[in-house]
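Below is the data:
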Amino acid sequence: MKKYFLAISLLQVICVGVKAQQAAYLNASLPIEKRVSNLLQQLTLQEKITLLGYRSKEVKRLNIPAYNWWNEALHGVARAGEATVFPQAIGMSATFNTPLMQEAASVISTEARAKNNLAVKQNRRLQYMGITFWSPNINIFRDPRWGRGQETYGEDPFLTSQMGVSFIKGLQGNNPHYLKTAACAKHFAAHSGPEAQRHTFNAVVDEKDLRETYLYAFKKLVDAGVESVMCGYNRLNDEPCCTSNTLLKKILKQEWHFKGHIVTDCWALEDIWLRHKVSPNSTTVAAEAIKAGISLDCSNLLQDDVMKAIQQNLLTEKDVDSALAGTLRTQFKLGFYDQASANPFTRYGADSVANTYHTSLARRMAAQSMVLLKNNNNVLPLDKTKYGAIMVAGPTAASLDALLGNYHGVSSNAVNFVEGITAAAGPGTRVEYDQGCDYIDTVHFGGTWAAGNADITIAVIGLTPVYEGEEGDAFLAPGGGDKTTISLPASHIVYMKALRKAHDKPIIAVITAGSAVDVSAIAPYCDAIIYAWYPGEQGGNALADIIFGKVSPSGKLPVTFYNSLNDLPAYTDYAVKGRTYRYYDGKVQYPFGFGLSYTSFAYNWREKPAITGKQKDSVSFTVEVANTGNYNADEVVQVYVKYPAAGRMPLKELKAFKKVNIAKGKQQQLRFSIPLTELQKWDMDSNAWKLYEGNYTFIVAKHSGDEGLHSEVFIKGN
């Protein structure tokens, strides 16, 4: 009998030990790698394969719920119901305000957690209601034709990296134990049009342009801890990005030591064999993707073909484990397998979505994004006492699309331009509205008589996201999502002429778009021009804040406004020569970094650039910025570098910037320190980064075309 009870007790101990071992992945006190390893041991091969797609399957026996990895947060939680809609990404970049960008991204992740909590409580495991986001888009907006350029932070690698790093920090948070949400840097790499060819296109880029322009921001976001990277549809130098040994294994994992997971763009693996035609079939592609480092497939190809690849000895279960480990790590970092009470983000609820603070932040971001391009005779800001009758006209004046941009959410707090101006003008001012024109008719117009009967006209014209955007979504874009011209719609230009002909009173033009357009076509017919981008839900209030002087405009252009597409190389040419302010030396309408203010600023050296630091590893300097005008305002101080004469150096390059608020009559001192590593360029002979010896000119300026303050520093090479 004693032996019997001893055997039973021993069996119970063994069972408890086995159960504890099986549940190790649920033990939040264990290191993540041990938890990942334990969960992989629990899963069968077939179960593992079902977790390789974006529609991750439920594993009931392990209490693993279904999860949809596809969620968007480009400028607010997108496609998921009520959420705060910030300005489109290109507009947020125009703020040149990295702390504000991080604050906005933190709001986005707060709302995402709240919405996910509410959905999960109702057992709704829906697409777009998750906490893994395929944002930001950090591709370089190299050509104004690209419809998706609005999703980016512009043409400059440094600005893109700074705004991108701030965005992912806000999305992912700073909790020592949990990611708030997971961010994703996309599309890796050299992916910026043409949209109509994206499923077959081969971007040919030499190593210098690749490293200095197209990969620069990705490296910065990887160094900052971005959780995920999405590979693009295109080929890069003949290799499909989503099976590229060069991009994914050699550079991303081996050279950069990326520790997160890699996800494909949606149905990109299908493109590899069906459209690029570089692999014979889907099973071969599945094997190539897994071996290249793909962890997650935005399609069902891996779920359908990985088992076939194993049966054909193209893969092993160990390969599958290695792939799946990446997404499991992300889930553990997000707290998927921990008690809800241990995770502070599970407490967010409905009051964390679209609240008063979030709305006010969207308004502030929108106001800081708008760029004042023209202000003849200081017609702006408007003195309400002088304008008793205001005419608001134009095809985008009351457009919801023109507020939202693409990859957008929806908001019950949206305020269009007519509504914002009407509210700000107040009930004692007469405000009228007329659509004025459409996008086709160049003969019939409305509101011209009423405009002549008003004291001032605010004409809101331009594009909406159906005329520029992603292939398929921008269904009225003539280039399959892309623009084929930088011209404004002909009907809008003729309408501006008609307004000018109708009267000689002031006309304020407001342009909506996500890219550079030919502003010169309407400039003669208006007294002031505000570039509003797609300013988000609070665009109407933000515009009113600027027009009536509550806020001085401080937005700066994150792209160059060219005179003509004839000034640029072929759209399909990915060489950066002749593109962007870094390599184009012709005349432009408005340079990168340009934007007017209601006040004026003066710059002076307080301490000229010199090599500093214990290791002599930085160039540091101090600048005094004085507000010499009549308005309290923000200023963006931009620092450009000119390099020693050497092969293929940029004309100049942004290497630092700061946005500061300075009261009228006051001044501030700004300290800048630029690491010498930031001045390295890719050397084609050694195939490595190199600091070239010679004189470097540091320019503190108001935009890329401004000579500003100059100072040279001799730097020894390495």
